[in-house]
Amino acid sequence: MTAKKRIGFSERAIYHDVAEDILTEFHPWLKENYFPADQKLLSAAGRYGQTTAERLWFGTIVTGEQFIVDEKGTRLIRNTCPFRLTWKRRPPRTSAM
């Protein structure tokens, strides 16, 4: 039996190692620290999810220049970043971010 694939789609992305005001302070066109995903791509993923047995997951992608390789680093991100590091198996968001 072949295991079903899990496919992840980013609804938005954020840096875990950049101060909250750095991006918006020095890039005034950014309204928040998150970089929203393309809504057309998310809509297409949602439509694909209705036609496939693949497991689709939607959530926030976290990136940075530090490599997080242990539970201590993961806890640090969870405790200091204003978002949750969980991914949900659900339809993509359709409202503006």
Characterization of the model:
- The protein has 97 residues and is α+β, with helices and mostly antiparallel strands.
- 29% of the residues lie in helices and 22% in strands.
- It contains three helices and three strands.
- It has helices spanning 20-26, 39-49, 71-80, and strands at 6-15, 35-36, 55-63.
- Strands 2-1-3 form a three-stranded mixed sheet.
- The longest helix is centred in the middle third of the chain and has 11 residues, at 39-49.
- It is flat, with a radius of gyration of 15 Å.
Protein traits:
3-stranded mixed sheet, single chain, 3 helices, alpha+beta, disordered C terminus, 97 residues
Secondary structure layout plus pairing:
Blueprint: E1 6-15, H1 20-26, E2 35-36, H2 39-49, E3 55-63, H3 71-80
Parallel strand pairs: 1-3
Antiparallel strand pairs: 1-2
| Number of distinct helices | 3
- Strand and helix order: EHEHEH
Number of separate strands: 3
Oligomer: single chain
- Indicate the percent of residues in helices: 25-40%
Shape field: flat
Q: Tell me the strand order in the biggest sheet.
A: 2-1-3
- The secondary structure category is alpha+beta
Rg estimate, integer Å: 15 Å
Q: What gap, in angstroms, lies between the N and C termini? A: 39 Å
User: Which blocks of ≥5 consecutive residues have pLDDT under 50?
Assistant: 92-97
Give a short synopsis of this structure.
This protein has helices at 20-26, 39-49, 71-80, and strands at residues 6-15, 35-36, 55-63. By secondary structure, it is an alpha+beta fold.
